[in-house]
Amino acid sequence: MRLQQLLEGLDCKHQMQDCEITGVTADSRQIEPGMLFVCIKGGRFDGHDHAEEVLAAGAAGVLCERDMGLNGQILVPDTRYAYGILCGNWYGNPARKLKLVGVTGTNGKTTVTCMIKHILEAAGHQVGLIGTIHNEIHDIVLPAKHTTPDPLALHSMLARMLSAGCDYVVMECSSHALDQQRLAGLHYQTAVFTNLTQDHLDYHHDMENYFFAKKKLFSMCDTAVVNLDDAYGQRLTEEISCRLVSFSMARDEADYTARDIRPAPDSSMFQLVGMGEIARVKLPVPGDFSVSNAMAAGTACLTLGLGIAQVAQGLSSCTGVVGRIEVLPADTAFTIIRDYAHSPDGLEKIITTMKKFAKGRVVVLFGSAGNRDRGKRRLMGEIVARLADFVILTSDNPRDEDEMQIINDVLPGIKEHPETPYEVIADRYAAIEWALSHCIEDDILILAGKGHEDYQVLHGETICFDEKRIVTEILARQKKG
Fold first, then answer.
1. Mean pLDDT of the region 268-286
2. 278 contacts 272 by C-beta, under 8 angstroms
3. Which band of pLDDT confidence, cut at 50, 70 and 90, is reported for residue 147?
4. What 8-state DSSP symbol labels residue 13?
5. Of 76, 87, 288, 452, whose CB is crowded by the most CB atoms within 10 A?
């Protein structure tokens, strides 16, 4: 691609002659002759420090934010934003030929995106999905490293989806991606806000910054679908200028509401009501938060032009999402559930839901992640001890933090409820083994935090850790005696 084509849409200053560019990268280790290198300043590394090095290695030019007096430099106000535009140009801007649906919020993003994809496909559309668990092109499943990919990987994926015949792409939009301009240049037909609760404050520092990052998505869309049951959702409706469509489980002023909710251990029945229409939904997933997720997905699809009957039919045929209230197959007198709940709000929701249907104890095995928001650890402990009947405190992904330091940060919250018995077992495998041998008839054992993840980051290294496989392995061994 020619340099001038690549720079289209950017406010830049340079004195370079137009030339053929062989590739684009923000990683100095990937530089090859003829490539354009984008200097991005991160938390630990600054690409500007490698500008001379990559030019010496044959780079055609460097895109930078500050004048370094180099031949081949191209100055732009914001290299993160510019990188997104460059990547879109490099792949021919596939997003402009697709209808994009973005979903943001602390909890529910994965479930809502999967529900939207299912509803649209049930209505006859070809849909791509970009998310936490994996990426999907129709029924083809591709691995996902991040909730929202790097711009180069993102536009490459969008190009593949367009080539495969997709007309819609549904994607999770993380606060990190929005803050880091990974979505620069994209425009969404509909953007969904699920909720905002404490998480990722290791990165955003406070809730105001966290909210502001999420809010950016709604300057990039035609229609906002917002949860009025969430305080930040209510605030968002007052601060955005795009078309607004709201949903709620309780508030009459919402455009769409869930009425006559009938919970069951394996499903949730409700009426989807709004705009003078009504439809009955039997969602094959339990929990009030599942109804809220369904309302988010259903309302989004209504804004895309689907009829309320199509939406209700799609929701009623949804299947569960891997690692989200997933009942693990086991020949036991108790029930084993794995769930991705790893925030205070997520833990509260899953435990509260299971308490409604539990005949015996609700036993919760959980930990808190390392190198992440330390301020939520005590709160997580307090919530679990207050709501559960028995607590097993263990590790999640310690990363390069000391496991016992993380556990000691959580413990004060648990001790706020001395009536709740607990056990501390730092080794997660050993903790699961202990839990499986101590649960009794009619208990519900919740393995919280890992969900779909099949790995654990321990002492800075990533090891295989698939809880579904581990549970099967331990139970088989215990059965043999």
1. 94
2. yes
3. low
4. B
5. 87
